[in-house]
Write a structure and sequence with these properties.
CATH class of the largest domain: Alpha Beta
Number of domains: 2
CATH superfamily of the largest domain: Hsp33 domain
GO molecular function, one term: unfolded protein binding
GO cellular component, one term: cytoplasm
GO biological process, one term: protein refolding
Largest sheet: 6 strands, mixed
Strand content: 25-35%
Strand order of the largest sheet: 7-6-3-4-5-11
Helix content: 25-40%
Subcellular location: Cytoplasm
Organism: Massilia atriviolacea
Number of strands: 14
Structural class: alpha+beta
Low-confidence stretches: 1-5, 305-318
Shape: globular
Radius of gyration: 21 Å
Length: about 325
């Protein structure tokens, strides 16, 4: 399922003569599409929206045809957050909140996901065209940070050795973000970036971060990308690239749902069929309904076709 969301924009830019790049993202139609099928508490909505902006910012720099999947497995009232964004900026996201819990409107990231200190942050890079036997790359680290931006900054520094700074904000209407990244120095003798001293590059990086750090959350939420870029970096020489446009897209299929059932195992599936008569499964991301009766399920276990499911199982209901 896709929607045409031309007002959703990701804008890349680079500082001339310095190995510093940046991106702004504004996601409104896609973000509202994600929220349509769920009623999340305000605090959960804020964190998920920030994660949506972050996934788009990171996905825009993927060097392969595939997707980035960001997950937080929590030990608090929020058990799971998942955002998926592919190299074409097609996105989907969902959250799992424990039943019967009350979530304060101003609950912090730690209160939502990590009160016991056991939460994990996972980034999976999943190529669309895998070689035989190739597995997706997956990095799993403790949830390190008091907000979503800090969690990702710490992950990028630890896993990718890249200085990365993010500013994220989300409300009911829009998910927005700014990313700055200090890139490794180039080795080519004729490269313009190489002609700038490391000290000058560091000065440019520190100045860019200082300017971006003046950005208030309310300003990020209420101001368009062009205005923000002019306001923050009007004294800098930057190059701006053609914008890209995120959009909502759910990649669920009957085959993938069948693979999920196969992962549960025949004994568990047969037990559920005996109790329910048929399995009715709704996609957590888009709400699409899939039904499997006894004949459908029997066909799933014919042969030994390997299965692979990166994302959590959807709810199974009668």
């Amino acid at each position: 399922m896709t929607t045409d969301n031309n007002n959703d924009t990701l804008q890349k830019f680079i500082f001339d003569n310095a190995a510093v790049r940046g991106e702004f993202v504004e996601i409104s139609s896609t973000w509202r599409e994600i929220q349509q099928r769920h009623s999340y508490p305000p605090a959960v909505k804020t964190v998920l929206g920030e994660m949506v902006a972050a996934a788009a910012l990171l996905s825009a720099n993927l060097k392969f045809n595939g997707a980035i999947i960001m997950q937080i497995h929590g030990d608090g009232p929020v058990r799971l957050l998942v955002v998926e964004c592919d190299s074409e900026l097609r996105m989907r996201a969902t959250a799992k909140v424990a039943e019967g819990v009350s979530v304060a409107d101003d609950a912090s990231l730690t209160e939502l996901l990590n009160p016991g200190g056991k939460a994990r942050f996972v980034i999976t890079l999943d190529p669309a065209d895998k070689m035989p036997g190739q597995q997706p790359y997956q990095g799993i680290v403790p949830l390190d940070g008091d907000d979503m931006a800090t969690v990702i900054e710490n992950y990028m520094l630890r896993s990718e050795q890249l200085d990365t700074r993010l500013w994220l904000a989300a409300d009911d209407s829009v998910s927005r973000g700014l990313l700055l990244q200090k890139l490794p120095r180039h080795s080519g003798k004729d490269d313009q970036v190489k002609q700038v001293s490391e000290a000058d590059e560091l000065e440019t990086w520190n100045r860019a971060v200082m300017l971006a750090s003046t950005l208030k959350q309310e300003e990020l939420l209420s101001t368009d990308i062009q205005t923000l870029m002019n306001r923050l970096f009007w004294e800098e020489t930057i190059r701006v690239f053609d914008p890209a446009h995120p959009q909502f897209h759910c990649s669920c299929t009957r085959e993938k749902v069948g693979n999920m059932l196969k992962m549960l195992g025949r004994e568990e599936v047969d037990g559920a069929l005996d109790e329910l008569g048929q399995l009715a499964i709704n996609c957590d991301f888009c709400g699409k309904h899939y039904a499997f009766d006894k004949v459908d399920c029997a066909q799933l276990f014919v042969g030994d076709t390997p299965v692979e499911v990166l994302l959590p199982a959807s709810d199974v209901k009668h």
